[in-house]
Amino acid sequence: MRILLAEDDPLLGDGLRAGLRQLGFLVDWVRDGVAAERELRAHPYAAAVLDLGLPLKDGITVLQEIRRAGLSLPVLVLTARDGVPDRIRGLDVGADDYVVKPVDLHELGARLRALVRRSHGQPQECLRARDVVLDPAARSVLRAGEPVALSAREFDLLHTLMLNAGRVLSREQLEQHVYGWGQEVESNAIEVHIHHLRRKAGNALIQTVRGVGYMVQREGETA
Questions:
Q1: Which segments constitute the OmpR/PhoB-type domain (predicted)?
Q2: For FRET with 19, which of 25, 28, 82, 221 sits at 20 to 30 Å CA-CA?
Q3: What is the DSSP letter of 157?
């Protein structure tokens, strides 16, 4: 799950990035509001963690601008401002959740997973398709009740497809979801990962829509 972290404190930002990566998130980190708005407009992040006290452009302004631009990704505001008026202001301009520093990393991860789930219309903690069950918190996959061993990239790719069940995603869209800054993407990387996923989780799970991309059907639907 690729997220944007906007935090200007170097020690806190580095700690949050490292901690969220350990929890399985793919984290791009920026240190000012101008960069945050630019990256949010340029990439399809699953969610954003946004500090309000950013330099160059404060978090509230960034939030207002991306909502005016029609960006609907979940935004979790992370701030030292713990007054009720500040929380109300953040929520009123488009924040989806609000956490006051210092924050427990596991709680932050759980809140992000819940926000992303709800933004995709997925009310349950685990995602299901055919006989496959994916648990984002445990980063585990079961097929017919048996564990499936996936690489980190394979898990992220399957998670993205199952979150977007019923929607066709192009190779380029999938690359943007599962690769972060500076990560080299070979031309056939997505196809190779799809091949491995079909071998491990079943050929019927991921469908190819010729000339468009790949999809996982919604639970209960059949091809």
A1: 124-218
A2: 82
A3: H
